[in-house]
Specification:
Helix content: over 70%
Strand order of the largest sheet: 1-2
Order of helices and strands: HHHHHHHHHHHHHHHEEHHH
Structural class: mainly alpha
Oligomer: single chain
Largest sheet: 2 strands, antiparallel
Shape: globular
Number of helices: 18
Bound molecules: phenylalanine
Radius of gyration: 21 Å
């Protein structure tokens, strides 16, 4: 078996964990979900979900992963030998599979938009034309698949080369750049005429819009965006040295990720209203609205190109972490080499992703009924099962595991590095992990799927 790698430095870990968290979830998914679910009301529930449930689960994952020092399945086997808890990890590996399949498709769209911007084919068009361009891209059979293959090829390539040389180096250079470009976009969006309506849609909550579906969507999005509930953060924690402070690391990652999502919304909604579009455009929202904004900026082509290339990189650092979750399992549990695990699993996931892509176009006639939803195409099915079912359930199991099975005392020991770090917040965390998070997750799941009103 190969020796397990470790993170090169503290900051390297933060960048890589934040790199996993910040991705299409923040910039593509968060704004369109908020737009579909009433704007500020969704944002409000989302923030509660992130800071009460998300942060709680992240601490549990970091603690479990670092204490065991293994992949998502092996960690449970090591900390609770002979029990069935490894199933939590197995569910996570399944979720990783599903998420990466559609994630690779959207990563491909980002690459396609980079090239479209650079080639000038997005310059000087009307909003209707931007809508048409997006819609014809996603239904065209071959074009999106070529981009998806490129995106997945890059992902697999980086995972083949391992933690230090791959993930860490990329995250360090590219993460700060994403924040800078978002800030520039916000300034432009806010100075467009009519932007104010977008700002109040996004920031002034209408609480009557909150219902079970909105809450489940917000909770699922919190898990998705923070890379929680499937063992990604657990796996990343397992590469972390015993000296690091898990509490501040988790808080930093959660804050950065949330900031990125909020900024993305700020960059998008004022512009949506200024251009007269409806906010509930669905998955095309960023791909339609941002080209229209770049079009109205000096050096728009340059900023547009930079934005889409950064979006693709943000997607890449997340995609790497999803594949890593699967690879770490095969490597640690089944003794596969990193290289064959990455290539074989990456290949299978890419093939499933091709089905996702085709399900938006020529195979859009095949749908599956799903409780609480209109019939779903394969792409949406992968998304809904993973974000709204597997991740929240994974998070629920991690909380129960940390709180009751492995025991909260052991988790506390890990989170304070054996009693040497401050334990000021741990009593609160103990209540959250043992009672609040499990109960809330169960209720939200039941209510979101219409089981209890
Ligand atoms: N958090 C990533 C994003 O927001 C996606 C992701 C989900 C990554 C689950 C790892 C695990 O884009």
């Amino acid at each position: 078996m190969e020796k397990r790698e470790n993170w090169g430095s503290r900051i390297g870990f933060i960048f890589a964990a934040a790199g996993s968290a910040i991705g299409l979830g923040n910039i593509w998914k968060f704004p369109y979900l908020a737009g579909d679910s009433g704007g500020a009301a969704f944002v409000f529930v989302y923030l509660l979900a992130v800071f009460f449930i998300g942060l709680t689960v992240m601490l549990a994952e970091f603690a479990i992963g670092r204490a065991a020092g293994l992949d998502a399945i092996g960690s449970f086997k090591k900390l609770a030998p002979g029990s069935f808890w490894w199933i939590t990890g197995a569910m996570g590996v399944l979720a990783a599979f599903m998420i990466l399949s559609f994630y690779g498709v959207v990563g491909g769209w980002s690459l396609a938009y980079f090239v479209k911007t650079v080639s000038g084919s997005l310059s000087g068009l009307s909003v209707e034309q931007y809508t048409n361009i997006f819609e014809s891209l996603i239904v065209a059979p071959m074009e999106p698949i070529m981009w998806q293959l490129l995106f997945m090829g890059l992902t697999i390539g980086i995972v083949v080369f391992g933690i230090q040389t791959g993930i860490e180096k990329w995250s360090k250079i590219l993460m700060p750049a994403i924040f800078i470009i978002l800030l520039i976009l916000i300034v432009r969006g806010l100075t467009l005429e009519g932007a104010g309506a977008g700002l109040s849609f996004y920031l002034k909550p209408d609480f009557s819009k909150i219902n079970g579906r909105v809450i489940l969507a917000a909770l699922g999005q919190a898990f998705f965006s923070l890379s929680l509930g499937m063992g990604t953060m657990l796996t990343y924690g397992s590469y972390l040295s015993k000296k690091e402070n898990l509490q501040t690391s988790a808080l930093t990652v959660v804050t950065l990720d949330t900031l990125a999502a909020i900024l993305a919304g700020l960059a998008i909604f004022p512009a949506v209203f200024a251009t007269g579009l409806a906010p509930d455009q669905g998955p095309g929202l960023v791909f339609v609205i941002l080209p229209a904004v770049f079009n109205k900026m000096p050096l728009g082509l340059l900023f547009g190109a930079a934005f889409f290339v950064l979006l693709a990189f943000a997607a890449l650092t997340s995609a790497i972490s999803i594949l890593e979750c699967v690879v770490a399992y095969l490597k640690d549990q089944l003794g596969w080499s990193r290289k064959s695990a990455s290539i074989i699993m990456g290949g299978i996931i890419t093939a499933v992703g091709v089905v996702c892509s085709l399900s938006l176009g020529i195979w859009s006639g095949y749908t599956v009924p799903f409780p609480g939803h209109d019939p779903l195409v394969f792409f949406d099915l992968m998304d809904v099962i993973s974000s709204k079912v597997l991740l929240p359930m994974g998070g629920l199991l991690m909380c129960i595991f940390a709180g009751y099975v492995w025991k909260v005392e052991n988790a506390n020991k890990e989170l304070t590095n054996g009693g040497t770090l401050s334990a000021k917040w741990l009593p609160l965390w103990n209540i959250l992990v043992k009672y609040v998070a499990p109960i809330v997750i169960i209720l939200v799941l039941l209510n979101g799927f219409g089981v209890v009103g």
